[in-house]
């Protein structure tokens, strides 16, 4: 593929342009399409531009920042959301967050960071805001027809043909809702955490929070301070890690151990030992004993949950058995009477604009089968960026994924032999994991250990460069 600096977007010429179902298709030549202008889409635009590609980025919202722009209708962040991963492990490698920011910045700071990133690298001119992608279809020659329309379905659809496509549409916006007997009859208020924005929604109510992910724990802690009663239902026991260990953000301590190549068993032992020294045996608080070792589920970083359980402001309870009219029966037979149930039960990935089989989702489960969580077999001009759940920040991973993809696209013309070898590696490596043993649930589909994952990415980049 040759490089292009063509930023204009000519109207399709029906006499020369290809058509699709009788409609004209605007041929965008060597231009790459990026879907989404959150952290992952922005870094993809930047890295593709730096490699010399023309880029059209489509963003359904009217601003950058994706999930971190809480005015966006699909943003999952709430008023009190702060980073869970610490600042140095979250920032882009070539654009540090200000030194005087806290270890765990607030979501408003994150949004200002993305706005500055977009301005610094002059990215907005490549973004079509208020435009959603409704279809992405592979066409001959490893090219892609991308159909867009104004967000909300106003105006006509337009189809443009691209040399390559980056899917950076995020995976934290489509709520995963569990099914429970009797839920439809329950007369209390029910919401998914995606609609939770402000502690005022909890004030003075009897609240049941379901789910022990980072969001579930945050909401339970807010309910402990605002609600008249808070129950926290979890299916199993978890390890609740403090955000600070030895005076440092916990992920920084973990990273030092990983850099020193301390074996998993020893890290697990150290972690257990640290917990024993601080909060001690969690079952003392009525919390269930974890049925797995640490690092086998996504880490929950929350210093306050155990504190509020210890103060009697959060009552840990087991899973829900069924809903009654105004009550909830728990699996241990107890009955409680919440007025509000908040399902903090996570999100599922959704690529509603693309046939599942393109991403290797052969069984229709919605789970893409990719190599490096980014590349689909048989589609050398497509990359998914940001489809990871690391034990650190996502942004550096999205950065290096898009650097790798830009390099791959460049080498497709400069060194087709290496690009072909990369394609064979994709086919052989689909489904590889980059974390130790993890629980097999939708919650852990995209779990990666950042050190292992970044090493694998670096190896792929070196192989591509013939180093
Ligand atoms: C409560 C909470 C706390 C978190 N804490 C951390 C943390 O501490 N560290 C961390 O690294 N991550 C954290 N995350 C994960 C967070 O999702 C990522 O930080 C980051 O938002 C991922 O960026 P992204 O660009 O991949 O996806 P998003 O931020 O979701 O951006 C995707 C963009 O694509 C757009 N889009 C989607 N579909 C279309 C379409 N069809 N057409 C056009 N545009 C489309 C969306 O509008 C959006 O702007 C947290 C998430 C939550 C919910």
Automatic annotation (TrEMBL):
Source domain of life: Bacteria
Compositionally biased region (Basic and acidic residues): 20-29
InterPro entries: FAD/NAD-bd_sf, Flavin_mOase, Flavin_mOase-like, FMO-like
Pfam family, one: FMO-like
Sequence segments annotated as region (Disordered): 1-29
Keywords assigned: FAD, Flavoprotein, NADP, Oxidoreductase
Cell membrane keyword on record: no
UniProt keyword Oxidoreductase present: yes
The family this protein is said to belong to: Belongs to the FAD-binding monooxygenase family.
Identification of the protein by name: NAD(P)-binding domain-containing protein
Annotated source species: Micromonospora fulviviridis
Lineage: Bacteria, Bacillati, Actinomycetota, Actinomycetes, Micromonosporales
């Amino acid at each position: 593929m040759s490089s292009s600096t063509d930023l204009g977007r000519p109207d399709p010429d029906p006499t020369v342009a290809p058509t699709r179902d009788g409609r004209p298709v605007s041929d965008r030549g060597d231009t790459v399409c990026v879907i989404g202008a959150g952290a992952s889409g922005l870094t993809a635009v930047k890295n593709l531009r730096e490699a010399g590609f023309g880029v059209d980025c489509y963003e359904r919202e009217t601003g950058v920042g994706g999930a971190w722009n809480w005015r966006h209708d699909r943003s999952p962040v709430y008023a009190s959301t702060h980073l869970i991963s610490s600042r140095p492990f979250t920032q882009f490698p070539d654009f540090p967050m200000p030194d005087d920011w806290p270890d765990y910045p607030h979501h408003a700071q994150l949004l200002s960071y993305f706005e500055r990133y977009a301005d610094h690298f002059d990215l907005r001119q490549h973004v079509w805001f208020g435009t959603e992608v409704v279809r992405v279809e592979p066409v001959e020659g490893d090219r892609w027809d991308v159909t867009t329309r104004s967000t909300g379905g106003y105006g006509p659809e337009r189809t443009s043909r691209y040399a390559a496509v980056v899917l950076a549409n995020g995976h934290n916006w489509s709520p995963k809702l569990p099914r429970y007997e009797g839920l439809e009859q329950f007369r209390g208020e029910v919401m998914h955490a995606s609609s939770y924005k402000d502690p005022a929604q909890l004030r003075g109510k009897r609240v049941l929070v379901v789910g022990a992910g980072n969001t579930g724990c945050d909401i339970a802690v807010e309910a402990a301070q605002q609600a008249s009663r808070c129950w926290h239902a979890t299916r199993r026991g978890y390890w609740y890690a403090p955000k600070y260990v030895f005076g440092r953000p916990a992920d920084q301590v973990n990273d030092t151990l990983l850099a020193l190549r301390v074996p998993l068993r020893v890290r697990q032992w150290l972690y257990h030992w640290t917990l024993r020294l601080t909060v001690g045996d969690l079952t003392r608080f009525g919390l269930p004993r974890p049925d797995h070792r640490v690092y086998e589920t996504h880490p929950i970083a929350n210093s306050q949950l155990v504190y509020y359980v210890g103060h009697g402001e959060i009552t840990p309870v087991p899973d829900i058995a069924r809903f009654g009219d105004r009550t909830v029966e728990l699996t241990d037979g107890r009955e409680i009477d919440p007025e509000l149930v908040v399902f903090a039960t996570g999100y599922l990935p959704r690529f509603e604009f693309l046939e599942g089989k393109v991403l290797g989702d052969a069984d229709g489960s919605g789970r893409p089968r990719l190599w490096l969580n980014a590349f689909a077999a048989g589609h050398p001009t497509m990359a998914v960026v940001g489809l990871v759940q690391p034990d650190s920040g996502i942004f550096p991973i999205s950065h290096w994924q898009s650097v790798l993809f830009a390099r791959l696209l460049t080498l497709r013309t400069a060194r087709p032999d290496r690009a072909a070898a990369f394609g064979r590696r994709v086919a052989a490596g689909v489904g590889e994991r980059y974390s130790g043993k993890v629980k097999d649930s939708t919650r852990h589909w995209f779990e990666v250990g950042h050190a292992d994952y970044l090493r694998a990415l670096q190896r792929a980049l070196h192989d591509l460069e013939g180093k």
